[in-house]
């Protein structure tokens, strides 16, 4: 999978006329983001939750990938929810941009795909936002946890969904299942 790493080494050798691993040509620069991603994607693939599947449409662009989350418990069990993850050039000083591609009835995910997850916030007053020490693995585990232990009805993005849960938990469950049936199969 880590074809970008081997491609970088191969391209470096072709450009400079030197074998891979030799001194590099200063005109050929690989971004810090791409160097970090080579290591982080390997770590992510080795530690992916069993309910998640990452896919890279272009193996040479590790900064753009999709994540499918299929919860095995709770309200969202039996659905598969797709996320698009873009890692900006300024990574790891700024968090990845994440959007839910699946329409969902969830207190922390808007029906339009925006996500309320503290570690995706660039600035956070509670200290739980993005920090350069965080990795893609943290992002994936955080997204996965939005369907279980990080499901938060007290600080919602989708206020209607949170209030619906507060009013009638069984009707909330039914609406979630209806959304799964129509959008998350």
SSE topology sketch:
Layout: H1 3-16, H2 32-46, E1 52-55, E2 64-69, E3 81-86, E4 97-100, H3 136-145, H4 159-167, H5 169-183
Antiparallel strand pairs: 1-2, 2-3, 3-4
Helix pairs in contact: 4-5
Identify the notable features of this structure and list them briefly.
185 residues, alpha+beta, four-stranded antiparallel β-sheet, 5 helices, 4 strands, 34% helix
Assembly state of the chains shown = single chain
Reported for the largest beta sheet, the result is: 4 strands, antiparallel
User: How many beta-strand elements?
Assistant: 4
Rg measurement, Å = 19 Å
Gross morphology: globular
- Strand line-up across the major sheet: 1-2-3-4
Percentage of β-strand residues: 5-15%
Low-confidence stretches: 21-27
Discrete helix count? 5
Helix content: 25-40%
GO molecular function: ATP binding; NEDD8 conjugating enzyme activity
Enzyme class: transferase
Protein name: E2 NEDD8-conjugating enzyme
InterPro entries: Ub_conjugating_enzyme, UBC, UBQ-conjugating_AS, UBQ-conjugating_enzyme/RWD
């Amino acid at each position: 999978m880590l074809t970008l790493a081997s491609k970088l080494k191969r391209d470096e050798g072709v450009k400079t006329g030197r074998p891979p691993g030799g001194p590099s040509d200063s005109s050929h620069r690989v971004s810090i983001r791409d160097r970090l991603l080579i290591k982080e994607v390997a770590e992510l693939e080795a530690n992916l939750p069993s309910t998640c599947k990452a896919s890279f449409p272009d193996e040479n662009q590790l900064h753009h990938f999709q994540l499918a989350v299929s919860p095995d418990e709770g309200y969202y069990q039996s659905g598969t929810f797709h996320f698009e993850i873009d890692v900006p050039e300024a990574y790891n000083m700024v968090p990845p941009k994440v959007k839910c591609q699946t329409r969902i009835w969830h207190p922390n995910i808007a029906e339009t795909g925006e996500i309320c997850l503290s570690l995706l916030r660039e600035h956070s007053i509670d200290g739980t936002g993005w920090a350069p020490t965080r990795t893609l693995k943290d992002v994936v585990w955080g997204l996965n946890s939005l369907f279980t232990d990080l499901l938060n009805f007290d600080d919602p993005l989708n206020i209607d969904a949170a209030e619906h849960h507060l009013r009638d938990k069984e009707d909330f469950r039914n609406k979630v299942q209806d959304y799964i049936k129509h959008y998350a199969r």
